[in-house]
Amino acid sequence: MRIDILSAVPDLLVSPFSHSILQRARDKNLLEINVVNIRDFGLGNYKQIDDYQFGGGAGMVMMVEVLAKAIESLQAEREYDEIIYLTPDGKKYDQGLANHLSLKGNLLIICGHYKGIDERIREQFVTLEISIGDFVLSGGELPAAILVDSIGRLIPGVLNDETSALFDSFQDNLLAPPVYTRPANFRGWEVPEILRSGNDKAIEEWRYQQSVKRTQERRPDLLED
C-alpha cells in the first residue's frame, strides 16, 4: 500500500512514521508513506498557499490553484483509490472505515490548515471526507497520522501476530476484553483462573463474554448498531 499526504507542515509527520509498527511496516516494504510539502506548489517568490476568503471573515483559506497543482502532479504518477480530506464535517472515522481503507492500494490524504481548503477542491477532487471527532484541531496532520496508523497496522504482515488486529476494540462492534501478563499474582491481585487453565475454547468464550459485558457497560451504543 502507498499513502501520499499533502501537508503545509510536513515536519509534524516525521516522528509518527519513524517509530514502532509503522516504521517496521515501511522497513518490510509493506507500506509506503510519502509526505508532500504543499509549499512546493506555492505561488510567487514566497510560495503562497493561502489567501483571504471571499465574502470576508476571519481565517485564511488554502488556495484552489495551489492544491489543484499538487493533486494533479501526484495523479500524473498514479491512480488513487480514494482522495481523502480531513475535516470536522466529514464522515466519523471508525474501525469499519479503517478496515475498508486497509484493503486499498493507493490513498491520497489532504491535510487542511488555517480556515480550511477552497470548496472547489472538495467538489472536484475529494472522494471521501473524514472526521476523527467532534472537535477542531489546528491542521490535518495529527488526524492524518491517526489514519495511517490505524490503517497500516491492518495490512497483513505488519503485526508480528497476524490475528492481533482481529481482536482489537471495535472489531465486530465490541470492545476488547481485559488482558493480563505475568506475574499471575501481584500483591494478591490475581489473574482470572480461566486464563491459566490452558483450555483454549473456554478462554475464547470467556474473552467473548467479557467483550460483550464491557461493551454493555461502557459503549452500549455499539451493541445497538
- Low-confidence parts, pLDDT < 50 over ≥5 residues? none
| Proper CATH architecture of the largest domain | 3-Layer(aba) Sandwich
**Domain module tally:** 2
Global mean pLDDT: 93
The fold-level CATH name of the largest domain is Alpha/beta knot
| Helix and strand sequence | EHEEEHEHEHEHEEHH
Q: Which structural class matches the secondary elements?
A: alpha/beta
Give the amount of beta strand, in percent: 15-25%
**Looking at the structure, what is the overall shape?**
elongated
Count of beta strands: 9
CATH superfamily of the largest domain, by name, is SPOUT methyltransferase, trefoil knot domain
Strand order of the largest sheet: 2-1-6-5-7
- Briefly, what CATH class of the largest domain? Alpha Beta
Question: How large is the count of helical segments?
Answer: 7
Distance between the termini: 30 Å
Radius of gyration in whole Å, from Cα? 21 Å
Largest sheet: 5 strands, parallel
Fraction in helix: 25-40%
Looking at how many chains there are and whether they match, the oligomeric state comes to single chain
